[in-house]
Amino acid sequence: MRIDVVTIFPELIENYTSASILKKAQEKNLVKIKVHNLRWFTLDRHQTVDDYPFGGGPGMVLKPEPIYRAVNFIKSYTRSVPRIILPSPQGKIFHQKKAQELAREKHLLFICGRYQGIDERVLDLLQCEEISIGDYVLSGGELPTLVIIEAVVRLIPGVLGDSESIEYDSFTEGLLGPPQFTRPRVFQNLSVPQVLLSGNHQLIAKWRYEKALEKTKKVRPELLNLVKKEKE
Ligand code: SAM
Questions:
Q1: Ligand 1 atom 27: the closest Cα is on which residue?
Q2: pTM, rounded to two decimals
């Protein structure tokens, strides 16, 4: 997979993607992440990327031309038609199913918004898909972009060393994940559930499923309706 990110803060993306899982995924050539400074695509001396909003109001808006130029440059340079994603509080909420869908793409391109957002015309012209990471407002699209990239890349086969670890992740089966324990067996007088020490894989799987169900019922009951609907 190839991932391009257009931002006015390239260092934010570069720092996070150069460590841990994302670093390893790039070293294994399972993903290529390229960051582009939006200011490279300006034509004026001051490298202006924003301007006042038409109609008045507070704040600034990202101008359409540099973004349009950046995307066209990436398209022609990579000779590919990327799926263009604009993290935005106005998008549909991101979830694991969307991560699974994006993990099947060959090329993703993220445009990081700032200030009051991006000139609406660029969204239409470039056919961007707006994705929100939750009902709250951040100052820029960099964190949402990183959230989406990490959720997607860890699903690419071969990225995680132990592929089993996806199996027990929350949402993989539509439920929250089961509780996990490690050594020591007793900590502060609290023992690890006996079943996990039994070596009986069937019993362990049953226990994990029941615990996942119990937690989902308690904390996110609406997820159970989704699972039900999908099975119907
Ligand atoms: N005025 C915009 C609005 O009300 O929808 C908010 C702009 S926000 C301050 C600046 C940028 O941060 C957005 O363009 C978007 O890229 C990003 N952003 C902020 N909150 C987000 C969220 N919950 N999900 C995804 N992106 C978000």
A1: 88
A2: 0.95
